[in-house]
Amino acid sequence: MSDRTVLRLSGADVGTFLQGLVTNDVNKVTDGLVYAALLTPQGKYLADFFLAADGEDILMDVASELAPGLMQRLSLYKLRADVTIADSGLHVHRGVDALPADGLADPRHATLGWRAYRAEPAPETDVDWTALRVAEVVPETGVELTPDSYILEAGFEALNGVDFRKGCYVGQEVTARMKHKTTLRKGLAQVGVTGAVTPGTDIMSGDRVVGTLYSQAGGRGIAHLRFDHAQPEMQAGDARVTWDGGGN
Known about the structure:
alpha+beta; Gyrase A, domain 2; 2 domains; six-stranded antiparallel β-sheet; five-stranded antiparallel β-sheet; 4 helices; 14 strands; 15% helix; globular
């Protein structure tokens, strides 16, 4: 997992600092791995990550491409809080076999196995992680999850990535409003895909754009759809796209 960076957050205020920023309840790290996101004040996605306890510190496992910006954003928020943010130097290991002694179950879905944080680089694995994600409609950083994403449209509730009882955090007001006052008209869904198509291709119903096709594996894909306009039979480039009406 060389595309992941593990940050170490330490200091007396680290728990309360993160609790006021991220979408999930940070106190859950005492029970295992926590999946969460940092949002803009307007409720849009900035970064998703895993949080793990390491003694009194908290490890933050994030896509390497987002790590510098995330560190900068967290540093702006910490003000005078007793919090230090640094690269831990640890490496992310993953597997779908038996949970090792230092392993933590992936909280998004049981089929995604475990993660562990170790000093040595992770060995190569033949697990098809994309196929596992597509099967359970799990979005990926930089693919389905972009700066235009709203986490509820990306399925964060089903993925155990948001807590509606924890209190305020950045972007909480918009997220809560989407949860309680509206029916989602857009979101991620699994679709059937027949034919080859580049991720990011528009999905068409006639001459109307009704969504975007992203990750694909084994004749299935993750699509972001306008549920009120999507149809059972659609087209993405030269590929046929089918949808059974289900969303995340």
